[in-house]
Amino acid sequence: MLIHGNTIKLLRIPFSFFLMPLFLFAYSQAETVVHRQALWAFLIIHLLVYPASNGYNSFVDRDEESIGGLEKPPLPTKDLFYLTVLMDAASILLALLFVNTLFAVCLILYIAASRAYSSRQIRLKKYPYAGFLTVVFFQGAFTYYMSIVGISGKVLEMSPANWYVLLGCSFQIAGAYPLTQVYQHRQDLKDGIVTLSYKLGYIGTFVFTALMFLLCNSFYYLYFTTNKLGMIFFIVQVFFLPIVVYFGYWFYLVKKDRGEANFRNTMRMNWVAAICMNSCFIILIIINRIPLSYISAIETAVPDHRYSQETLASFYSGSTDDLITKRKIKVVAGKTGIETRYSVIADFDKQPEQYEFFNKSADLLPEPGLGRRMQLYQEHATKLSLQAVNKIRGFEQIKGQITHLITVTCTGLFAPGLDVELMRELNLPPSIQRSSVNFMGCNAAIIALKQADTICRTTPKAKVLVVCTELCTIHFQKQYNDDYLLSNLLFGDGSVAALVTAQPSEQYLHSVSIESFNSMVLHNGYSDMAWRLSETGFIMNLSSYVPDLISKNIEPMLRAVKLSVDGYKHWAIHPGGKRIVDDFALALGLDKCALAHTYQILKDYGNMSSPTVLFVLKEVLEKAKPEHQGDRIFSAAFGPGLSIETMQLQYV
Prior knowledge:
The protein is an alpha/beta fold.
């Protein structure tokens, strides 16, 4: 038998649009989304459960005057009752088949409450307070909870933030519900129903609605700020503003003429509210499903042995009797801009007979072999890395949430590697996803952050731990060519741990959002910066042409990717050497004060290879001021190849 058109009309399917906001809100806030289940949950709720509830209410009440969504409702038939039963059964069956059992249980509870509200046997709607509270709970907090279960397949964790959002949802319905009854007083009284709206009166209903929405907004504020999403709260306010404006206008009309509390004005209010809220939560879905990434923490560590540049230069010159070489070492050391460096080696300020790593002779011969150097790396790399990681604020509390670990090094290798050692020592989850960036030189930290950024943008709850550890001084070589004059007098040891997350943190004055990365390889500098293995360790090529190559190419590189120097107020540049930093500033027309943090790190630590640029960035972030919000940060580092890696950040 065909279903009569009036029966379909009484389901009031378009009315589901007015009830859609809480589902969209839940979709925007769910930690995980199972898209197929979410689609089924949406269809079941809005095309079956809500229409069936509307239809059953119409069948029982047999309304003769306007009801929500219908100005002139037709009289119902038994077909409507049987159709609502069929739709309820179909919704539960589909939930079991295509969503999950808990969602189906939630549907049963919702349907039961809806029937208890309307049925002649129980008739909760005739009790102004019990009926009101039933609607507020089931169409508010319970609907949000049920939607989360359908969208994510998980139970909503009862954290303080989630209590706030559940209360906010219920107060949202508490404000809207009496307002939808304001034109029905006469019809409800004919049916023996005294609604809360009738008890409040026309003016009281509007005042009560305003109070409920104020409480709703307060709990939404608590929810978003507790989750460190205060900016989202203000975005919500922009969309809520038209609702407030129209509400105020309607209230003004009703104060002048109670006849303005009619069906048509109520429906206009419903349309304004639904369009604004649905649009708002769709925007939140877009924002939250295209996640950003943030640098949430940077911590550093250096070995115990701190040496002045004069001490290290003296050790170096003491290994040769050639006076010209001694003079060159002294001159180059004086021009590096370095005052101190750190090392895991204890020998640099000792007499030859006290050496522990080098051969106990002034000429250092025979030099330590590759195996001995790698042994020293394995002894110290994990310890130094742990020092950096354990400085991260609250790391013990969050380490179980770390999803990815990326280790970076170019000064030593062993297996199981630094990543596995850190997992074991830190007791990180055994399921953590690991990767390593090896042998890529001074710009490897930015390459690792690029990986972390990609992970966070595709995994909304990702927390990526990046650890860069370099023990450059263990590769001190008894060589005196120009390359080694530079490398022996520039490099030090250090480690950095950075936490990159898909959600912002409060580690710094402003959250630090990662914007983008750019890369350039200068093939004409292929041999000017390079590492290679030898029997006595890693051999460094670092020619004096490197600063020229960088200075001549950095500005064209920025122009090619449409980055303007004027767009950046803060600079975190890798201190590859004093001349590199000088020429970088000159090439971009920067005052050297803009690179003050770079010069300071070079002065205090030397070039530690990959961690160094993050030592600089840490200084930049910790010196942020309130007026810096919205400012952008430019970071760059230089590595073998010759390669330039840049990173753009913003205070948000």
